[in-house]
Write a sequence for this structure.
């Protein structure tokens, strides 16, 4: 796979990207633009999936053109959609943990099973009633961060900082109240390498003019404030981060986290449903001596998203859960999946809509 990023290419300059960040918070301004043919090429690749090889290995070096080594990430994106039979539900995970540091904590494992659930349906006062997520931690506390040790080009202290910043990205992307209410994820974007051209193009296009090839919910959890409101101010989370030495001595971090969002209709009423999102995100904290990057930012290697009851029709740039108790009007493709099964690896995405087994 090819992307921009070589010296002399059309990488978006730092000052242009930072100006976009400033203006995007207010919902104004034009994002950095690429020639239309280039944009079409990138959009197509972002929706594609290689036949087999593990996504993190799609990150490959190319021939150096200067003292620094220049490489590009073969970015892999995947989206799986499920609608609701009786309640919301979702699909699950991919991971290759060979050589990775960090294991699921005892508390996380205990929170995950057994299969029994609290009785009853969700209410405004008890939005996680009837869900295994009722036993999970709240928000950031549900994301397990491994102990740091010197890895690749980084010291123990630098690894610890990179892990903390990776978790900051997860929080800014999936737990920030302003973003969940439909705001721009500026705090998350500022942590992303502005010289990773395919990602900057995708993010700016998706936030400005979302469509089926450029959907911001692939990376950011956002609800349409005109359609849904969060209930209770708490998001449940369960997942962990692991890390290993990557290409050119980089610190490669994988985060696999499931988020459960209770929501009610924006216009009022006491019906509560849940949107469940599992994300696997792989990032690389690169050595600036060897890779063209910006200090304090990571390169995005791959992301996979499995979304339940977040919408399975037209792309709007937001999650749009189904209300009314009758399930979705969208036809399903026959697939069923349990959104709370974190033992299954995340596979390829699907264009159609499946059915969740529980909420």
């Amino acid at each position: 796979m090819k992307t921009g990023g070589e010296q002399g290419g059309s990488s978006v300059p730092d000052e242009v990207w930072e100006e976009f960040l400033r203006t995007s918070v207010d919902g104004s301004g034009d994002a950095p633009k690429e020639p239309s043919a280039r944009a079409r090429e990138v959009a197509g690749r972002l929706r594609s999936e290689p036949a087999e090889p593990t996504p993190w290995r799609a990150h490959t070096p190319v021939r150096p053109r200067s003292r620094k080594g220049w490489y590009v990430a073969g970015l892999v994106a995947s989206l799986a959609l499920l609608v609701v039979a009786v309640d919301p539900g979702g699909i699950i995970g991919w991971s290759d943990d060979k050589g990775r540091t960090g294991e699921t904590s005892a508390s996380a494992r205990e929170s995950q099973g057994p299969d029994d659930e609290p009785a009853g349906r969700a209410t405004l006062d008890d939005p996680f009633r009837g869900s295994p997520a009722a036993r999970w931690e709240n928000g950031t506390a549900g994301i397990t961060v491994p102990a740091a040790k010197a890895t690749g080009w980084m010291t123990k202290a630098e690894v610890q900082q990179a892990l903390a910043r990776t978790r900051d990205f997860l929080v800014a992307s999936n737990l920030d109240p302003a973003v969940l209410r439909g705001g721009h994820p500026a705090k998350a974007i500022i942590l992303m390498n502005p010289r990773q051209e395919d990602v900057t193009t995708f993010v700016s296009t998706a936030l400005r003019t979302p469509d089926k090839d450029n959907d911001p919910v692939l990376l950011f959890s956002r609800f349409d404030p005109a359609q849904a409101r969060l209930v209770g101010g708490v998001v449940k989370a369960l997942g962990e981060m692991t890390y290993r030495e990557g290409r050119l001595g980089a610190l490669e971090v994988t985060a696999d986290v499931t988020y459960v969002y209770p929501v009610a209709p924006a216009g009022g009423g006491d019906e509560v449903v849940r949107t469940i999102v599992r994300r696997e995100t792989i990032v690389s904290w690169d050595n600036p001596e060897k890779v063209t990057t910006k200090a304090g930012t990571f390169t995005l290697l791959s992301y996979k998203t499995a979304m339940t009851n977040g919408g399975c029709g037209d792309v709007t740039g937001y999650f749009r859960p189904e209300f009314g108790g009758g399930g979705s009007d969208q036809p399903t493709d026959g697939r069923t999946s349990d959104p709370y099964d974190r033992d299954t690896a995340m596979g390829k995405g699907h264009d159609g809509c499946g059915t969740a087994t529980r909420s």
Observations:
- The chain has one domain: 14-356.
